[in-house]
Amino acid sequence: MIEIKNLVKTYNADTIPVQALDHVELKIEEGEFTAVVGPSGCGKTTFLNILGGLDTPSSGSILIDGTDLHNRSSADMITYRRDNIGFVFQDYSLMPVLTAEENVEFIMELQSRPKAERAARSKELLEAVGIGDKGKQFPTKLSGGQQQRVAVARALASKPKLILADEPTANLDSKATSDLLDIMRHLNEKENITFVIATHDQRVMDRAKRVIKFDDGKIIDTQL
Amino acid sequence: MITKIAWRNLWRNKRRTITSISSIFFAVILAILMRSLQEGSYGQMIDTAARFYLGYAQVHQNGFWEDKSINNLMTDSEEKRKKILSDQNIKGAFGRLETYAMAATDTLTKGVMIVGTEPEGEDQLSKLSLKMTKGKYLSSESKNIIIGEGLANYLGINVNDTLALLGQGYHGASAAELYKIQGILKHPNPQMNNQVVYMSLPTVQYFVSATNMLNSYILNVHDNRLVDKTVEELKTKLDLDTYEVMSWAELSPEMVNLINTDREGGKLMTYILYVVIAFGIFSTILMMTIEREREFGILIAVGMVRRKIYSMLLQESLFIGMIGIASSIIAGFPILLYMENHPIHLEGAQGEAMAKMGMEPILRFTASLDIIWPQAVLMAVIMVICTIYPIIHVARLKTVEAIHS
To answer: How far apart are the CA of B297 and the nearest CA of chain A, in angstroms?
Structure first.
């Protein structure tokens, strides 16, 4: 379970302070499929960055299974992210010089997993996201929807408990969005992986189990 | 995987990578050629001096080199020769007795240097017999002389003509004799070419009234890079209170200074060339780093520790360096081999200027790995140095800012 306590993030504290997160309190249960929504600049991305350990809060804390996420050194945090959190970005952010299966294997390589295991899991994950036949393709040869599927497979490679997705459907057409959401929901239900998705996309909100609305750095509404 | 990514990253912008590799290629080729020409010239200077006159080392009566008097001679003996030849690096040793005299024809006179030598030993060192342009080379029994072409031209004399030599003999004796010219040679050292008179050792000993006396043993060696070691070993075998053993570098310190000064100047020029190239490479590597800031941010976000990114950057620059260096060696070494075997013969004013300085008017190159490997190491070091700032840049990268850059 993720427990967010009195989370505050203030940028430019020494000059003109901008409060990106204003005393956010939230609990996310294991296996949730949560959409974080709100207008641009409302604090969605900052929230995701802090939840993913990419950024640090000005005050407050995030407890994951009772342990303070940010009570780690920078190096430990990188390892923690590698082993426990998967990221999906709006623009896919795949390594352009690696094939689809190499992109998926890359995270496992960072974990020093055996080659055979990496290859088998990479194949399994690409098949799970519906592009098992595209493993040898470089990202530039794939459509946006296919690249985002590779990104999801990559995020799943390290068997994380939590996947954070920042506008994952923003660059996809309706069909690709629908297919991607099917895959994510399926993984969420089958593997009990927690998804937290920052989005503007109504289609994502429609498929989410819970929608959390942000405005001016505060949670203004939570819908189940 | 990191190595694979680094390698593939190089070819994301082929044109830029090829431009960087080309700049390294041309810099190293140019540096190799410059250094090869320099070292070839030094080799030529040393060869001219050592092989045609000084020898690679000499043994004298102690103090002779400071006071080259006709009275400062030593006795030739088999025992001394055996001691000298016992060193494995010594290929041969022969005696010389040199003196100065006035050469005269019926109309002209000129100061000359008389080199009394053992013709076979002299020929083994300097291949003088191949320099004969007229007549024949000396034999050990010969009582005739051979002279430099420049001297023959000046005096207007030819083979079979007679030359009068007048000088000072051993311990104040007068030395005067008529000698028949049996050959004319083109000495590679232009100064020698204009003033040298060669005769056999017994002939000169008779001329200066110094039977069985010498002023030098001239040593030829198998490996001229081991001369200093050979000299040191000889010093342990000979009585240093009576004899002095000197390498060519000690015999001609002014040449050593000239070579060292010129070598340092050449190296400085090479370093300047490399600094210019280094800035180009640095800007390429920095650009490759800055334009991938977001990518690095993503890599850090998904769990790649920074030291692996540093390793990737270092490998990328070393790949560029290695390809540039390897291609320059592959292309450069055959060029050096060709140039070593086909030196540039200078003609006209340049050739004359070199001749006036006492050197053969030839630009020699040398094809030695000792010239190539320092350039390769230097270039590799430059590549590493050029990667330091990009690594610092990545070390300072803020992940969130990089992802959203």
So the answer is: 10
